Amino acid sequence: MSPVLVAALVLLGLLLVLNLLLTTAVIRKLRRHDELLRDFDGSAPLSVLPQIRVGAPVPDFTTEATDGQLTEADLRSTETLIAFAAPGCGGCEAARPRLIEMLEARRRRGEAGIVVIADDEGDGGTLVGEFSAHARVIVEHPADGAIHQALGIAMYPNYVLVGADGRVTRVGGDLDEIAAAVPIRS
Q1: Rounded distance, CA 125 to CA 163, Å?
Q2: Fewest CB atoms within 10 Å of the CB: 2, 124, 127, 180?
Q3: pLDDT in tens, 131-150
Q4: How far apart, in Å, are the Cα atoms of 22 and each of 9, 34, 43, 119, 154?
Q5: What's the pTM?
């Protein structure tokens, strides 16, 4: 065999081994990512924001709702359900019909409901239209939004139930758990 052919075969062999090593590394990374997603049940925040705890008073905040200004003082008049949603969130999409039903029942009873749409790409307009007939709606950037920061919300969906005394009575990512405290009755 000619030396050029031998060199070409050695180079091809080295490239095949390098390709195999890189493919193995990518497969490992994808498996680890898949495990992390499979283990994530939505019950823990994804950032370092300390999520507000049950019994804690709602901290001071001021933000703009679609119908005017909203502050923590507005949460002290009646029990308030605050729902956090984001465009493209699968869990938010799945919970939306039940959430709308809960918000509408609360509205008919004269109770408060607020939907906070985490909109960092300007695509939350559709959600505003869907929720505005049933609750007050706030659209804010999740990283620096006043109510996100005050309540420590960093994952979606998430729900906070605030008592008429301004203290958190329930918090979590499972609408069924919150619904246990907020019965749907007409």
Answers
A1: 29
A2: 2
A3: 988 999 999 988 888 999 89
A4: 20, 18, 34, 37, 34
A5: 0.70
